[in-house]
Every structure is written in C-alpha cells, then in structure tokens.
Amino acid sequence: MAKTKYYKTSQEWFDQSILLIEARPSTTRITTKYSIKRPRIKQTEESTPATDAAPRAPRAKLTLKTFDPVSGATLKYKTTKAAEVNRLIQVLGKLSKGMAGLKGARDEVQQQGAEAEKEEKVVGAAQGAAAGAEAGKGAQVPEKGQAGGGGGKKKKKGKR
User: Fold this and answer.
1) 134 band by pLDDT with thresholds 50, 70 and 90
2) Distances in whole angstroms, Cα of residue 123 to Cα of each of 115, 117, 132, 135
3) In this structure, is residue 133 part of a structural domain?
4) Tens digits of residue pLDDT in 94-128
5) In a domain, 124, yes or no
6) Whole-angstrom Cα distance, residue 156 to residue 139?
7) Between the ranges 48-52, 57-61, 95-99, 155-159, where is the mean pLDDT highest?
8) Which residue has better confidence, 67 or 37?
9) In terms of CB atoms within 10 Å, which of 39, 40, 61, 72 comes out highest?
10) 3-state SS track over 97-158
11) Which residues lie closer than 8 Å to 97 by C-beta, 6 or more apart?
C-alpha cells in the first residue's frame, strides 16, 4: 500500500491528481476538508478579558485529498491562504471532468494554475509597493513628467 504524499504547491497536487484521475477515473475520489481553529486566549493573573489586546482571527485550513483505493495512492495538499481557497474550489469542478471521462480537464487546470501564479505575483508586487509607499509616505518626490498641477487643459471661451 502506498504512503500519503503531501505537496508543497497546489499546482504540484493538481498535476499529480490529474495523472491519477486519468489512470483510474472510475475509482479515484477527491475529498475536501475545511476546518476553522479558534485561537486560544491566554490570560495571566494580571490581565482581564477587557484589557487584553485585540483578539486574533480564527485560523482556517483547507485540505484536499485525491485517493484511489485500488492502488492505495493518496495525494494531499493543505493551505491556510484565504485567497487560494476560491481558486482551489473552482479547479475541483474541472478535475471532476476527468473523473467523468471528459477531455480537456488537464488543459483547463494547467491554464488556471498559470493564471493564478501570475495573479499572486501581481498581488504580491502591489502589496510590496503599497508597503513601500506607506514606509516613505512623507518623502515622496514626483518623477520627471509626473509633476502635479500646471500644464493642464485651458478653459474654452464660448461665444457671447
């Protein structure tokens, strides 16, 4: 019996799941588990609930499992990233096409995975730029050609 294999990225899990589904579409199953873990509240003798710092948000985790009972193969991926959960749920529908014997599931999943990687890079770059802008907020100097004011359109004079 094969061991459970955990993957570091969702794309690796997708690729291997597609291969397993293509090999055994009638027996392979995909399951999901979503759990929310509430943070523990630590109280000391000196603190009271009213004087504690702001409470932490609950931590959620999504676990995806592809399992084939015939071969014993189990593929798992876990994530705590909220932005990734929506994308993963959408891809599950596309993976199910392969289980139904429909063609094109591999291309759709790979295309969506590539789009998601680009989106994560853009979002990461935007967050980094926003953080950099916040850090140097008072010392911003406009670049050449971006000076604000002046040089705008003039009002048109109408006939009187």
Assistant:
1) very low
2) 12, 10, 14, 18
3) no
4) 887 777 767 665 565 556 555 655 665 555 555 55
5) no
6) 37
7) 57-61
8) 67
9) 61
10) HHHCCCCCHHHHHHHHHHHHHHHHHHHHHHHHHHHHHHHCHHHCCCCCCCCCCCCCCCCCCC
11) 103, 104, 105, 108
CA 12 from centroid of its chain's CA atoms:
14
Domain that holds residue 83: 4-38+58-116
What are the residues facing 66 on neighbouring strands?
30, 75
Q: What is the CATH number of the domain that holds 65?
A: 3.30.720.10
Contact 94, 105 (CB under 8 A): yes
Measured CA to CA, the distance from residue 159 to residue 140 in angstroms comes to 43
Answer yes or no: is 129 within a domain.
Answer: no
The Cα 78–Cα 27 span in angstroms is 23
* Tokens encoding 41: 């509240």
Those residues whose C-beta lies under 8 Å from the C-beta of residue 7, and which sit 6 or more positions away, are 13, 16, 75, 76, 77
Domain presence at residue 32: yes
Domain count, the chain: 1
**DSSP alpha helix (H) spans, 24-104:** 82-99
